[in-house]
Design a protein that fits this description.
This protein is α/β, with parallel strands linked by helices and 231 residues long. It has a single domain (4-225), classed as Rossmann fold (3-Layer(aba) Sandwich), CATH 3.40.50.150. Helices cover 37% and strands 23% of the residues. It contains nine helices and nine strands. The protein has helices at residues 4-14, 30-36, 53-61, 74-86, 99-106, 134-143, 157-167, 187-194, 217-225; strands spanning 18-21, 24-25, 43-47, 66-71, 92-96, 110-116, 144-154, 172-177, 200-206. Strand 6 (110-116), helix 6 and strand 7 (144-154) form a beta-alpha-beta unit. The radius of gyration is 17 Å and the shape is globular.
Length: 231
Amino acid sequence: MVHILQLLGNAQSMKKSIVYFQGREVSLSDLTAIFSEKQYNLIETEIGAGKGRYIINLAQRFPTNLYIAIENSFKFFSILTKRASKKNLQNLISVFSDASYFIHTFIPKIDVLHIYFPDPWPKERHSKRRILNVTNVNIFLSKLTLGGTLYFASDFIPYAESFIKVLKLFNVEIQLLDKWEDGLRTNYEIKYEKEKRTIIRLKAIKTSLTPETTCHFIKCAYLELYNKDYD
């Protein structure tokens, strides 16, 4: 952790990722060996893990699973990494990177994917910056194992509705949920529940390996480029 600010500068200038595992920085080439270890029952990934409240709790509760916390805010990534190090977690990888790039390039498979309260970019002119577009969802679901589960929550209803439309392009079973079985999961969720906001929660279970999507890639790209409805 001593050189973490220097690492940030290197990451930004070289457009690389910073990865911490078991209290130290690891090279991207080390990830292959980590992922190939047979000791882990499941690989769970959280996109936008923030300060790590939920995924650190999971890593403590289920030491035989491997957890990957991806965060693109260096401030939150630093807090997350320090918290994981203090708890001496041996099964949590913390990542400072763009999620779609890192998942596509380095993660071989995902059994459970968590995406809670992603930035909604509420202004219409900014909506294309949302992470849950067709291209990225295709990347995320391509890594999800057969029968694997994606969990999602948002308080921004238009974003949630848009994401559901995107999910319907893929071979997944979508289930809307009133609440999680294990209680409130993130700091945002706690805050928004106190504020009595409406929260959309869902899980999507992957039902087929091929084809990855029922929407031809060129058609999907066209819809996304021209901001058309996915119906």
